Amino acid sequence: MSELQYYLTPKRAIEPIYPKGNAFWRGNDRFLIKGINYFDRKSKDGISKPTVHDPRIDILTEEYLPNLRRDIEVFQELGLNTVAVSSLDPSRSHDAAVRLLAEAGFYVLVKISEDIRGPELPRNNGSFDSDFDTQEYYTLDPITASLKLVDELADHPNVLGIMVSGDSLRYTSTTKIAEVIHAHIRDIKAFLRQRCGRQIPIGVTNSELLMLRAPALKYFTAGSPSDRIDFFAPDSWSWAHKSSFQISGWKNVVKVMSEVPVPMFLRQYGSYVGKERIWEEVECLYSRDMTGVFSGGCLYTFCDPGHSDYGIVEVGEDDVVRRKPEFETLKQRFRTVNSRLEEEVFEEAVGDYEGWRGEFPETKENRWMATGNMPQFPGDWGEVVSKIQTAQDQGVPYIHQCDRP
């Protein structure tokens, strides 16, 4: 059997993950995300591509399938179940890679809309209107690109969810851009309802600016259930090297975020402070201390992004994966987690998100400026959907027809 045939041979059926209450489920069983952020820092010609400011390559296109086949073995060795990716090109096909991951038993989280940006802050303490008009920042190209990707990915049963980027919420004075992000989420969910295929979960990422976390959580879970997020995916860098549930601040985070019963997981975790990481946070994340609020997370990251030492492996010019010393420690942490009994991991109670109704947070000057008055779709809805339909008819996946509003 060839290497490709081996990876395409079904190992287990992939059952779609769905959110219910404040948790994720596979059938009747709770599901915890044991994931890794995955991207490659090299192009196929061996040239180092991304830096802090450069976009990353699209790791799920066909030319990178050899890399993916190679790296799947590493994911399996660690005992993971999910891969988180970003920077996907809506003009390219990702079907082969997503299916390859499915056959190996892996779910996929996809971050989109990285190019949502608010106005630039002035330099030298210049004046700035924090109550800017968000309609001009909701432009057609980003939402069209998002809808194309969602259309391609939604019917893959192992695509766990789509993460709309909330990373532009980094400055208190530009928080009004949250209206654009929320509108983006609203229109993706409307597209899925009209499309009538799988209603894939749509969530939002959130960088670790703690003073904005609580209002962001309240904001994106407010409004109509058909428009609000299905999950919340914040970053967490507060557990640094040797720490604990209390010392890291995770205890306080759980207390604060438990006020909103939405499914959550850590989009990125694994702080590097110049020492070999010991990954104590893994055993805490998958314990009863955390699982009443968080459903696991995605460690950062597979290989170094070209500007840090966060990778758990190094990939040389010879395409050989070399495991860093901390890799074995991480593997042992997941081995411990994966051997736990269910009662060691979960509380019995699950929150009620379906019946919960949140309110938009109050606006506060230079603290939180986003309101429930979100911008309208920036174009002709029927024309955009028709163009996506036409593109799919020419060979890329398809769009379902139905009478659902």
Automatic annotation (TrEMBL):
Annotated keywords: Disulfide bond, Glycoprotein, GPI-anchor, Hydrolase, Lipoprotein, Membrane, Signal, Transferase
Bilayer topology annotation: Lipid-anchor; GPI-anchor
One cellular component (GO) term of this entry: plasma membrane
Entry-linked InterPro entries: GH (IPR017853), Glucanosyltransferase (IPR004886)
Entry EC number(s): 2.4.1.-
GO biological process: fungal-type cell wall (1->3)-beta-D-glucan biosynthetic process; fungal-type cell wall organization
A UniProt-annotated Pfam family: Glyco_hydro_72
Main EC class the enzyme belongs to: transferase
Entry's Gene Ontology molecular function annotations: 1,3-beta-glucanosyltransferase activity; hydrolase activity
Annotated compartments: Cell membrane
Entry similarity comment: Belongs to the glycosyl hydrolase 72 family.
Annotated function: Splits internally a 1,3-beta-glucan molecule and transfers the newly generated reducing end (the donor) to the non-reducing end of another 1,3-beta-glucan molecule (the acceptor) forming a 1,3-beta linkage, resulting in the elongation of 1,3-beta-glucan chains in the cell wall.
PANTHER family: 1,3-BETA-GLUCANOSYLTRANSFERASE GAS1
Stated name of the protein: 1,3-beta-glucanosyltransferase
Organism placement in taxonomy: Eukaryota, Fungi, Dikarya, Ascomycota, Pezizomycotina
